[in-house]
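Collaborator request, handled under Task 6.
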Amino acid sequence: MPRIFGIRALQWTALALLLSVLLLAAVLYAASAVLALQTPDLLEVGEPWLVSAAWQPLEGGSIYNPVNAPPFLHHNYTPLGAVMQWPLLLLTGPSFLPGRVLTIGATCLLALMIAMFVRRQGGSRSAAVVAATLLFTTSLQHPWMLVGRVDMLALLFSFAAFLVGTNERRGFGSAVLFLCLALAAWATKQTAVAGPLAALLCLFWRGARTRALVLSLLWIATVLGLAALLTWSTNGQFWKHVVGFNARHTRDGFGGDGLSTVQLLQAPGIALLALLLLPLLLRRTSAGGVWWLYAASAGAVAALGLSKSGSHVHHLLEVCTVLSVVAALGFDVALLRLRAPDAQFVAPQRSSVLRGWTFVAVLLLAAVGGLWGLQQGSWQKLKHLHWLSTRTDLVPAEVRAVLRDTPRPVLLCSKLGSLAVEAGRAPWLDMADFRRLEVLGVFQPDRDLVPLLEHKRFGLIGMPDFAPGDAAAELFDPRRFAGFEAALYEHYLPMLDEATGARLRLDDPKSRRSGTFWRPKS
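Structure tokens returned to the collaborator:
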């Protein structure tokens, strides 16, 4: 049969361009990861408080301390992510490094696991590259794969549980491994249940109903048993932190705080959304139904997370990961057709020609969308990380000296809390969480916090700056606590520059980390 001149060349050119973009995404992520591990600075507002929660047991405290008692921490998550930081924390002291090592390591293992799965399914090397690297092309998800949070580690366990649970081998060993991975996912992040849940639904769907029922009961029993043990060992505080306070957060409807519909659509990235057209157009992928079920389970869990006050697009990480596999499987079917001697994509029939040009258009859209995502995400983050690693230290030397020498705890509010971690200290009081806890009535600043100022418990207090009318002040300004500002003025003095007599300030607007510092009156 005659060929349509030029379309095959266009298809291979578009394919080469897409794979180049994806490999570039992997390189940019690797470069960002190296810089993220080297910088002591804050990358995400929640990092300091996760470091502090992980550090507390190493100083004789608890991850789940009562929220109305020092060090005023509300740990939102189950404990495994914090526990896994302990070996490195013993070497580094309070530091961002251990959490970032876990996040970056989990991300790399997840990408490798996805690539190996696609290859073992009979997929091509190109499909394996697509599956493993698509997630790196999204601008909104990219930063969450670098910061010291629990999301990627929980996702790794959840995804692995799904792969083991849906494996054709159904012996005792695979059942034990599935339960261990499912429990590890939940023990890292209490909402990391989509992978195990989807695996059990798949077993039921395939007719292995007895096995599905037994594994479901064992999974529920182990989760409830661990939850009961943690609740008992912490005098009920585990349940309050992980379930009670979280369940009472303000609900904002689907989308979370400040997330527009456009941002939610951007969360998967244009490259992923474009390549998802392939399995939809081809109407089949290898084991596609199983993965669509996983995507639906992950989407349901993400919807619950996105309805919580303070939520962001990291709740969609598992959805995007699963859809990356779906897209890669569809891509592989299309690629097999392209490689066939009588490739349908280049045959002269009108429908085949249309499919051929559609394939070119999808690949080009994915490549261009991926480049846009890299520019908005990976490249911008890489430039920011490089700037952090080369910039001049803006923190006044006098403040660094106090952080180093004072034997008393320090109270550095909002993003200034990162200064404590940089100095090897555990920060106190995550303002955003405790403003919410104040609304719930479980934290009363005039009773729990203000007396500590009156007794000059803190060797240093850092007060963040907010412009008039800044909405962020409602959650992040300690002056909003009843009695706080009056106690500060009565018992503390602002630190002054000895040369000029002006107040010592940290002016760091690019990192949104600016403020003044106060010392106890003598």
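The cover message to the collaborator said: "DSSP finds 25 helices and five strands in the chain. Residues 1-5, 341-350 have pLDDT under 50 and may be disordered. Please let us know whether this matches your experimental observations."
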